[in-house]
Every structure is written in C-alpha cells, then in structure tokens.
Amino acid sequence: MIIATAGHVDHGKTALIKALTGQHTDRTAEEMRRGMSIELGYAWLECADGKTIDLVDVPGHEKFMRTLLAGMGCVDAVMLVVAADDGVMPQTLDHLQVLKLLGGRPVVVAVSKCANVTDERARQVQQEVIDLLAELSIEQPPSFLIDSLSGDGVAALIDQLNAWANSFPATDDQGPARMSIDRHFSQPGAGNIVTGTLLSGRIQIGDTLRLSDNGTPLRIRSIQVHGQTVTTAQAGQRCALNLVGELVGSDLSRGSQLLDAAIFAPTACFDSRLELIAGLPNRGTLQLHMGNAVFNARCVPLKGEPLPADRPYGQWILDRPVCCRYGERFIIRDPASRKLLGSGWVIDPFTQSKGRQRPDRLAALLAMDSPDADQVMQSLLRVLPDGVDLGCFMLARHLSKEPAWAQHPDTLRVGNWICRRSDYDQGLQYLLAALAEHHDRHPDQAGMNRPQLARHLGLPTNSRLLSTIIRHALNGQILQQSGPSLHLPGHQPEPDAQTLSWFEQLLPAFHACAPRPPIIGELMTQLRLDKAGLMPRLDRLCSLGLLICIGRNRYLLPESIDHLLSLANELATQNNQGQFSTASFRDHSGIGRNHSVALLEYFDKVGLSRQSGQYRRLA
After folding, report:
1. Looking at the predicted structure, is the pLDDT value of residue 35 above 60?
2. Residue 127 and residue 598: Cα distance in Å, rounded?
3. Which of 15, 45, 84, 493 could make an SS bond with 122 (beta carbons 3.0 to 4.6 A apart)?
4. How far is residue 582's CA from residue 591's CA, in Å, rounded to a whole number?
5. What confidence tier does 268 reach under pLDDT thresholds 50, 70, 90?
6. How many CB atoms neighbour CB 253 within 10 A?
7. Spacing of C-alpha 244 from chain mean position
C-alpha cells in the first residue's frame, strides 16, 4: 500500500513521516537549508505482520503544485496533515481539491503540532477538516491529534495505517508489467538506477522491459525493495531497478514508464470522460497530469447524440505520446492561471481525430465507458456493425484474458476480429441481393467491384465485415470474381457483336505486351483512331469486364491482373511478415516501376491490398 501526504507548507508532513518511520525524507541541500520539502520524499513503515506501507512526502508550497500532483498520481490513499495552530490554510484547500479530482482514495486526517495549542483548539481544527471532507463526500474519515516531536497520537495513527494495510485489497499482479518512474540517477559501478511504483504485473531479475518514451529495451540487472535486494517485485510495490541497455539520462523524465513489450503502444490522441470544476478555455494549451507525468495538450469537446448532455467527453491531442489504458485518471490544469480545471478518465486510448464527431463514433465511445469488459464488448458489437478488433480492445484495457463474450455463440470470429453473426448473415444477404439487382439492371457489365458494394451496403471500403463476407462467399462458391468485379455464379456480361468484334482486334496487342499494359499511342496507330475515338471504346470494354483500367491510359486483361496478383502473393508468402515493397514487386514482375506503382495503387483502391508506409499486405 502506498500513502501520500497532503497539506499546507510547514504543517509538519515531513516531521510526521519521521515520527512514523524514523526516516527523514528531505535529502537535498536546498531542502535542508530552507527547511521545507521541494522534491518528493520516500519512506516506508514496517507493519507488525511483516507487511510494509510506502509513504510519499509531497511538497506543500503552491509553487510546487506540479510536484505534488506527480507524488499523488500513483498512490492508494492520502494522509491529510493540518497544523493545529494554523488550521485550514490556502494550500490545504488546494490539496482538498486535488483529493476530489483524484476521487476514490481513502483519506486519514492528522492534526499536527497539537502541543502548541489547547485541546479545544485542536478538536476545533479536527472538526473543521472533517466538515470540509464531508463536502467532498468523504464521510467520517479516521482522524488523529498528533504531536510529532513528543510522539503523542503517533501509535494510534500507526494502528490505523496497519488496519488499512490488512484490509486493502491485493493488487492484481497477473497482468502485464508496468512501472511508473519517479527518479533516475547513475551509480558508479552499477550504471542506471530508476525508482518508482510497479502499477501492474510482476517483474524479476533478467526481464526486459520497454521504455515508454522511445521504446528502448532495458534489462533488469537487480531489484531492491525498501533497501533490500530481491529477485522479484509485484504490483503495488515501490522498488529500485538497476537497468542495462542503451540509456542516457536525457531519455528519462519523471513519469516515464517501463512496460512489458505486449503493452508498449504509445498514443498521442485519446478520448476521455471529463469531470470539470470550471469550463475549459476555448483556446490555448492545458496540462494533463497523468500518474507521475505531465503533458501539454489541447482538448476538443465531443458533443451530440447519443452522448448525454450532462456528462462531458473530450478528445485530447498531446504534445508527445503516452502509454495509457482505459480508466487511467488524470488531472487538468491551466498553466497560465495555475488553476485546477477538473479531471478525467481515459476511455479510448487508440482513437482517431478523423470523424470523431460522427454519431456512430460517439455511440462507440459511450459503449466503451464501462469497466465491465464483457458488457463493453457486447455493446460495441451492437453499435459497430463492422465488428471489433479484439487485440486492440484487450490492449486498450491491458487484459491478459479474453472477455467471455468473445467466445459467445452469437459471434463470428476470424483471427482477432469478431462481429455479431446476425450482422454477418444480414450483410451476406444484402450483398447477394445487391449483385442480383445489378445483374438485372446492367446485364452487359461483369459485376460490382468492392468500393461499389461497400457504398451500397453503407460500409467503409476497408470494412473487415465486407472482407469476411466476400472471402467466405468466394470459398463457398456462392460468389465469383473476375478481376476486380464480383458477380453471382453463372453470370456473364452480354456484349453486342460489334463490341466483341472490336475486342478481338485488340487482343493481339494486349497479348504481345502482357503482363504490361499496351501503349495508348501504339493502339491509336494500329487501329487508325484518334484518342477521342479510342478511349470510349476501351471504357466500354472495361464496363463489360473484358478490360480493366488500372490507371490513367493503362488497361489490362483480367488474366493479366490475376497473374500479377499471384506474383504479389508469392512475394508476400516469401516474407515472414507477409508484406512487400514496390521495388520488390517491380523486380519480381518485370513490368517496370511506373506500371508497378499504378498497379499497386489500383490494388489498394479496389481493396486487394493495404499500404502501410513503404510496404503493402494483401487484404
């Protein structure tokens, strides 16, 4: 269990921790000289049953609010310290506001310096603090009258902390490892040392973790917990790690994280639910305090149906990526006025700024706003007919086990993608009906390509649902494909005799240069046609499925397209990652760079391939 102090400057937080633990948390020369905490201090209290409680001493001065927020970002409970002689002071109220924004953390009240006042004054201050906490919906917190110098009341406070430690639920250490760093230094003969809180999972000597800032892999050489060398550490503990890897001091800052490689997924844009004290400014940069870290960010409010009007949501665009998960709590601060504006919870860490206000996108956001993974999965499948990426869903919540709904009989699963079986069945019926109607209306055309079908069914061109329907329908032979055109079995376009005769004249020219497209100028010379006479005829053949236009002035026979697609498949199969570059396709096909670029862009357009950077994968 980890407990942070809170309270006005010079109200005895550091002295109280020393009385509890015997450890002095002020360690820098400047802190010693000024007699006040500037940096975060750390100590631990050994309980009677062998458990330990970590204590974080945070500065109380208003100039160090950022440091205070960092210290309170990764704790389980808070010890509010108020001096009996001063009573409630401005920073006391600020820290109470932080407590409200963090929410859900148990609080214990310690009225310090009681030897300096009468018993009546001490009890008056105690009641005043309890009344203030009641306004934050914290009813009857444990409270103690303390004098750190004489030790009066310290034993009773220790008993309370021991009771907390015994009743506090055990932290789940079965998930992926994740540690928030609060200090970094170099030690002669050892190298890089970091200290921080293990937020989830379990680590042991020899494990390799990724640094959140840049993905650098770092191996754990040794682990210390409370000054003792150990072989393992688990979630909820503060520990120090000796790291091995290509790391320099500039790579690290307070709030950096060490992560299991499975959850290293930086994002610079996420959706959240907000709880605001005051409205957010329309312009300007705000600060987000998340865990021990602070980010500059701007917020775009998310509004409209079906979001409730009384529950604000917003999308945050950060100045640098962060590794976060669903439910991560953060505090919003205006750096210009130094005021706290509110707090929020991460709902979707992997959102996109494009289309963020669409009704379907807002419906998905509302569906994700629940801690119950099974309920969220069921709701998402209902509002997202294109299905859910299960891998992304589990990563967003750092789940180590799939939700039960992923195996439900009402779902259809292909790899890590799942959808409702009813959506699949309905989509298949709509697709077959759309093709039948198209064949009736346009008997002279080969069929419909993927973008046309996507528009007809109201799905995006890169729809996973549409891909699955087409793939299964082709495998089940209830659908056929000729080049990019999809059609029902047995359908043949019905060109007129004149068009067929003219196509027969073209075939030798196409066969002679296959699989390259013929040069339009040479076709014009051979057929004694100008461009205005040639192009409409080529387009007519394309509508019949006898030719395929892959780009400006580039036409191919369907069998040439099929041949080139098989070459692309060979390349993808040879690469263990299933991808290939334009250059490798050019060399493998022998059709030249310009033709290769046009053909691969055509494959992307009709949904046969997907581009990612300089590489492509077949869909």
Report:
1. no
2. 77
3. 84
4. 11
5. very high
6. 13
7. 27
Question: Is beta strand 77-83 parallel, antiparallel or unpaired with respect to 2-6?
Answer: parallel
The distance of Cα 473 from the centroid of its chain, to the nearest Å, equals: 34
Task: Work out the number of other CB atoms within 10 angstroms of the CB of residue 443.
Answer: 11
Are the beta carbons of 342 and 278 closer than 8 angstroms? Answer: yes
Distance of CA 399 to the CA centre of its chain: 13
Alpha helices by DSSP H, listed for 73-203, are 90-102, 119-135, 154-167
Q: How far apart are CA 5 and CA 19, in angstroms?
A: 14
Percent of the chain past pLDDT 70, that is, above it, reads: 94
Q: Residue type for 231, please?
A: T
Q: Which of 206, 208, 179 is nearest to 194 (CA)?
A: 179
Domains 267-363 and 370-492 share a fold: no
Reply yes or no: is the peptide bond before residue 515 cis, omega within 30 of 0. Answer: yes
Q: What's the pTM?
A: 0.75
Which residues, other chains included, contact 80 with Cβ-Cβ below 8 Å and sequence gap of 6+? 5, 6, 7, 92, 95, 96, 99, 107, 108, 109, 110, 129, 133
Q: Which residue's entry shows tokens 């000054």? A: 227
Mean pLDDT of all residues in 178-183: 88
For residues 396 and 348, the answer to whether their CB atoms sit within 8 Å is yes
| 2-167: CATH topology | Rossmann fold (3.40.50)
Cα–Cα distance between 202 and 220 in angstroms, integer? Answer: 12
Half-sphere exposure of 347 (CA within 13 A, CB side): 25
Q: What is the pLDDT of residues 197-215, one digit of tens each?
A: 898 899 999 999 999 988 8
Does a cis peptide bond (omega within 30 degrees of 0) precede residue 321?
no
Show the tokens assigned to 170.
Answer: 């055990």
Do the Cβ atoms of 136 and 100 come closer than 8 Å?
A: yes
| Domain covering 370-492, topology | Arc Repressor Mutant, subunit A (1.10.10)
CATH code linked to domain 178-263: 2.40.30.10
State how far the alpha carbon of 501 is from the alpha carbons of 52, 504, 524, 553, in Å.
90, 5, 17, 22
Q: What is the C-alpha separation between 425 and 416, in angstroms, rounded?
A: 19
* Topology of the domain comprising 497-618: Arc Repressor Mutant, subunit A (1.10.10)
Task: Give the SS3 label for residue 547.
Answer: coil
